[in-house]
Structures are given as C-alpha cells and as structure tokens.
Amino acid sequence: MKALQILDENRLFPAEPALREVAAELYDLAKDLPITSPHGHVNPEVLARNEPFANPAELFIYYDHYVFKLLHASGYSLDFINRNGTDEQARAAWRLLCQNWHLLAGTSSGYWLNHELASLFEVYQTPSEANADELYDHISALLATPEFLPRALFQQFNIAVLATTDDPIDDLKFHKQLADDPTFVGRVAPTFRPDAYLDPRAIHWKQNVGKLIESAGLAEVSYKAFIQALTIRRSYFVANGGFSVDHGVLEPYTADLSDDLAGQYFESALAGTISAEEAREFAGHMLTVSAGMSCQDGLVMTLHAGVVRNHSTATFESFGPDSGHDIPVTCEFTNNLRPLLQKYGLNPNLHLILFSLDETNWSREIAPLAGFYPSVFIGAPWWFLDAPDSFQRFRSATVETAGYYRGSGFIDDTRAFLSIPARHDMARRSDASFLARLVVEGRVTLEQARKIMVDTVISIPAKAFKL
C-alpha cells in the first residue's frame, strides 16, 4: 500500500515542548509492557477455534457499536450489519464505512481504527470510496495468513490477561480448552455476569432463574435454592480461572433486606405480582448479597452504572441488543451504595470497582468513596468516555482526591479484538501526558512519575483485580 501518511510518534502528547519531552520519556517506560485486560467482551471461542477472521467488515464494523452507530446516526439503516452474510455484503458494508470515513474524524473510534490500519495492516492512506475495494482486498489477503490468526495476534499484542464476559450458566468449555492447551500462552479468564438473574425486571427473569437453579444441579425453585445456585456457579467460575463478577445496572442502588422479606419478594416476582418498588428493592438487595459472596469467594465486584439499555424499542425489536442505542444517564452513588458499604465496605476481602458514565460522579462521589473505603476502587473511563480528552478529565477529577493507587488500571471493555492494543496505547499516552504536566508543574518528581507510569500498567490493575 502506498504510504500517504504515518502515525505521529508524538500523538496525544502535549504540544508544549517541555511537556512533550517528559511525556515521551514516560511513555517509553510503558509502551512495550504486557497488556492486562481485566474487563472486555471478546468471545473466547475466537481464540479457542483459532480460525481466520472472515473479512474487514467483521473486524472493523459488525462488532464495534462505536463505528456503526455513527453510520446509523447519519441516516444509514443498520441492515448493513449482516454477520452471517456473503462476502459481497461484507464488502458493501466496508465501502459504506470508507465513503463515510470523515464521520469518524476526531472520535476515539477514528483514532483506534487509524492505529489498527497502520500498525497491523500497513495501511497509511485515508480510507475513501475510491480506495475501499483496494483496502478490502489488501486486508482480506493478510487475514488469510498465519500471522493474522487470533492466537498469533494475541501473542503479537502481548496480552498477559484477557477477561471475557460470560453467562453464569455457561459451561466455559472454550476457557477450559485454552487453559488445557500447552501451545497457548496467556490467560483468558471468564467473568461472571449475573444481571439477567438478579433483577426481576430483566426480560425472561423467571425462566432465567429456573435455568440457573437447574445448572447448579438443584431441583427446588425457591429463594434459598436461588442463593445456593449463585454460590455454586460462582465457585465453578473460580475453579475455571474467573476473578471477577460484573454488574451492569441502570442505577447503583443497594438494599439490605431480611431473608424472609427477600424470599417474599422472590416469590412475588415468580408469580408476576411484584410491584415496581419491590422489584427495585430486591435487585438492590441482590447487589448487597453479591458483595457478601465476594467477601467469601474473593471474586472482585465491578459495578458499571448509568446506562439506559436499548433506548430505541424499534431498533431493539429489529436488531436486538448491542445495536448502538444504549444511552448514558446521571447517577448517584453515595446514598445508593451506603447499605452495601455499611455491611461490607470495611471487609478486607471485598474489592468493589465503580464505573460510571456520569463524569460528575468521578470527583463528587467515586474518588471520595475510594479515598476512604479500602474496598472501593475507581473504575477507569468506560464506554463513551474511554477517549483521550475524557481520560485527561478523569485524571484531573480523581487524582487530587484519591491519587493513582486507588484506581483499576485501564479497561478496554471491547468486543473488537483488534482494537485492544490501540486502546491500551491510547491510555498509556494519555497517562504519560497527564503525568508530564504534574512533573513540569513541580507537583510530583520525575522519579515518582516514572514509577507511577509503570504501576498504572502493571501493579495497579493487578491489585484492584487481585491478579
């Protein structure tokens, strides 16, 4: 491919020369360190089967809602997302992206895609309608080579730990396959994701509960059996390398009910007679129960709050979940989390990592909570906020209150496997830039900054996620 532009080696660094020089020095310390990805959505089957990726559309469009939602917002129907379609349909989707490449300018998605195209595929031209087919053929040819098989890329990316997101009743066969394969180097860990079972407002909750209890080898459908089934399945995940439980909630509301009252709400939910307030209380109670279980089995508890899922009913009915229309809302943590933290916040075995899409939470609530409770950690910018400017705002909002060492480390939170190194590189460059300012302003020494730079990649995520 003809080189028309290359990646700027100083991208994301400050423009001011003195700051840029320090940022570049700090970045050099971390740029080649292994990647720890303790929360993400890559399908473990991709690595277990180790088959070639189908085409560029599968890689860059179909599983990346950051990309296809912008096309949809510009008037294109999501019909172009056809994951089981023909090569010509995939090529048409790729053409659509290339002719609209300008829509990604200035976005984190555009930044990551440019990084991937240049660093992996040696594509240095700006995609366009004119070169779309040439780029498609070039990328497709590389995908057919051994160097671009998923496991080869896993090694090339220098991934030490990759966590997936898994249903509590999953048999984890692909995780077992990878763990038992002596030729596979690295750790792919399952993550227990119980949202569909803990909240009676979830779609098909009654059926989900029945499946959960059955998967644990139990027969009776009762609140007692429900709690026992969760405990059994969590233990199964631990036995298969899991280290965390992930909760994705609209609000981080917690409650602490008696077993009798919780049992009554459980039975009402099964009967379909539970009120909206009772359902909220039961869901909040189950978050507190989950924290108690984490105190027992050691699984790290991550709480991702503040998203209205499937905002467009028509889109959900046509294309299902994860089709680009989950929208953030404001959140409140201090009062909502108090019942949970009153009961377990001082327990040394609980690690509770708080993620929010409401930036006002960072300085107002999450950093102060993490600045007192040993169990609470600050989740990195997530989803809409894992972008260069957001990352700078995040550090400004949290470091002054809680420092660096109450954080989670960077979270890529992605289904787009090839974007993982681009996202982590972005975080390392952003951290180097923020630290450089602290050094030049005399707020930390260069020696301190060097240590922090490495720790943000290695020891900080290892501590937060008990790795």
Helix content: 40-55%
| CATH fold call of the largest domain | TIM Barrel
Corresponding CATH superfamily of the largest domain: Metal-dependent hydrolases
**Count of spatially separate domains:** 2
Strand content: 5-15%
Name the CATH architecture of the largest domain: Alpha-Beta Barrel
Largest sheet: 5 strands, parallel
Please provide the count of β strands: 10
Query: What is the distance, rounded to the nearest whole angstrom, between the alpha carbons of the first and last residues?
Result: 41 Å
Secondary-structure class: alpha/beta
For the biggest β-sheet, the strand order reads 4-5-6-9-10
Provide the low-confidence segments as ranges: none
Q: Give the C-alpha Rg.
A: 23 Å
Task: Assign an overall shape.
Answer: globular
Using the coordinates above, name the CATH class of the largest domain: Alpha Beta
Number of helical segments with 4 or more residues: 21
- What's the pLDDT, averaged over the residues? 95
